UniProtKB/TrEMBL annotation:
Taxon lineage: Bacteria, Pseudomonadati, Pseudomonadota, Gammaproteobacteria, Vibrionales
Name of protein: Putative oxidoreductase YeaE aldo/keto reductase family
Annotated keywords: Oxidoreductase
InterPro entries cross-referenced by the UniProt entry: AKR_Detox_Biosynth, NAD(P)_OxRdtase_dom_sf, NADP_OxRdtase_dom
Lineage: superkingdom: Bacteria
Organism per entry: Vibrio maritimus
Domain NADP-dependent oxidoreductase as annotated: residue spans: 15-181
Keyword Oxidoreductase: yes
A single MF term (Gene Ontology): oxidoreductase activity
Claim: Methyltransferase is one of the keywords in the record: no
Amino acid sequence: MKYHKLPHSSLEVSKICLGTMTFGEQNTKQEAFEQLDFAVERGINFIDTAEMYPVPPKQNTQGLTESYIGDWLSHSDKRQKVILATKVAGPRNVPYIRENMSLDRRNIHQALDDSLTRLKTDYIDLYQLHWPQRKTNCFGQLNYPYPNDNEEVTLIETLEALNELIKAGKIRYIGVSNETHGA
């Protein structure tokens, strides 16, 4: 397996990342364990998940992916061998996760604590915003009408909340998953 340093970090990640968004929907817990074992045995050390997984998102399955990974981590004792990435869902219409999905301090802290519980770990190597606070064209819609409205939660507030969690030792590095920019 080939590895490279994740830019602006000390994380050496495998060039192949195991995406897990089907664990709990298309994959059983046993299949998830087998896939995780298979990947790690072949040198993959980068595992990506999110609080809203599996997809398609549903209230009755939300969080199962992280729970399966957490059970595998505690069963396999391989936490120190993997770079674990997860995501806070952000401002989308998924009120069964949290009533208000803004990327404010309260929501980010709650989301991370819930993910840490499901993942059965004390820290996340790479914690990402699944989407930025502002409305974006996440999936490349042609002629997307970018709104000119001001969001109530500023990027500064979001970054300050994430920085608090870095200082607390719960997050090593931060990022954003689905980001694009307007014309």
